[in-house]
Amino acid sequence: MRHERHYSLDEARAALPWVVDTLAVMRAARERLTDSEAREALHGGAPTNGGGAPGKQVGEAFLALRAAAAAFDARGIVVRDLDRGLIDFPALRGGREVYLCWLEGEDDIGFWHDLDAGYPGRQAL
Question: Which of 9, 48, 98, 122 could cysteine-pair with 111, CB 3.0–4.6 Å?
Answer without folding.
Answer: 122
